[in-house]
Design brief:
Length: 322
């Protein structure tokens, strides 16, 4: 019996189980490829995603305070760095090396951004590079329009089924498979931490004017939604707005504004030209904060073997336009 032929109640039950345990029901069956899988929005499965957005509205009741806003901004940038530095430049492109413990910690930090586990993220991202802006590309704005490239693509059955054959190198680590299966644990822990932080601050420093509920809404929900849509701009806007330095055969663009809000990911045409480079801002004036932070981590010995972009590929490529 295929999943689509299950009775409605059973599909909703499966979706509910998948909120907490993505393991037994979500991998693409052997022998299928993404286009074989239905491309329909899974409404039951995405209730938590909608709820994360809706909960931001409760700011009407919890109010705001400078400390809550500061914590939200810090939580945004820390998790944006975890997505760009770890989910993207480490797990998806293996552009530097680290220890096995480091790898797991990077996975946990990435999962705190509530963009599912590292295997899911890397499998879909490698698929994007394999088919950039071709019909098979899950999130090409050229092929599928803004809304679907921004967020529609991962709300469908196909979006929930990563082609794990693309991440066989990562699948060999049981701890990463575990993290990917129960990826929701990390965001829940972060939400509980934010709530507890607000309660402690309310008790110890009432003059700050915060509370458990307020810190939860700002430090977790608002910050998560901002980090979501900041990340999504790379799939949507970075393939539409900006300049192309290289003829990469796709619509990827370099955009300084997107590079600032995503800590360097906006140098997306550079990235499609040479995806295995740790650095995406190819020149000193192309601000790439993720790269600077990774460089500091390499000085501290946490990561090593950062892959540079060879000068011949950067300056003398036949694909170079300007
Ligand atoms: Zn791209
Ligand atoms: Zn990439």
């Amino acid at each position: 019996m295929t999943e689509q032929s299950l009775p409605l109640w059973r599909r909703w039950l499966n979706a509910f189980i998948n909120w907490f345990d993505t393991g037994p029901l979500v991998t693409a069956p052997e022998g299928t490829s993404l286009p074989d899988i239905p491309d329909r929005v899974e409404w039951a499965r995405i209730i938590p995603f909608i709820a994360v957005h809706a909960t931001c509205l409760s700011v009407i009741w919890v109010g705001w305070s400078p400390i809550a806003v500061i914590v939200a901004v810090v939580a945004y940038f820390v998790r944006m760095f975890a997505i760009t530095g770890f989910y993207h430049r480490y797990f998806s492109h293996r552009s530097f090396k680290t220890s096995r413990v480091g790898q797991f910690v990077f996975g946990v930090l990435g999962a705190s951004a509530v963009q599912r586990g590292p295997l899911w993220w890397a499998a879909h991202h490698r698929h994007h590079h394999a088919y950039s802006d071709k019909p098979e590309d899950s999130h090409s704005p050229v092929q599928h329009g803004f809304v679907r490239s921004h967020m529609g693509w991962f709300l469908t059955t196909r979006g929930f089924r990563p082609d794990l054959r693309r991440v066989r190198d990562l699948m060999q680590f049981p701890e990463l498979r575990w993290l990917d299966r129960f990826d929701i644990l990390i965001p829940v822990a972060l939400a509980v931490f934010m709530f507890g932080l607000g309660i402690v601050l309310e008790r110890l420093a009432p003059e700050l004017g915060t509370s458990g509920g307020q810190m939860l809404v700002w430090g977790f929900f608002i910050s998560t939604v901002a980090c979501y849509h900041g990340t999504y701009t790379i799939n949507s806007l970075s393939h539409v707005f900006g300049r192309q330095r290289y003829r990469t055969g796709d619509a990827s663009r370099n955009n300084w504004l997107l590079a600032l809000i995503t800590l360097g990911e906006g140098w997306h045409n550079n990235h499609h030209h040479f995806p295995s480079s740790t650095r995406q801002g190819f020149y000193w004036w192309e601000i790439d904060i993720t790269y600077y932070l990774l460089k500091v981590m390499s000085w501290l010995g946490i990561i090593w073997d950062l892959k540079p972009v060879p000068v011949a590929i950067r300056d003398h490529s036949p694909r170079r336009i300007r």
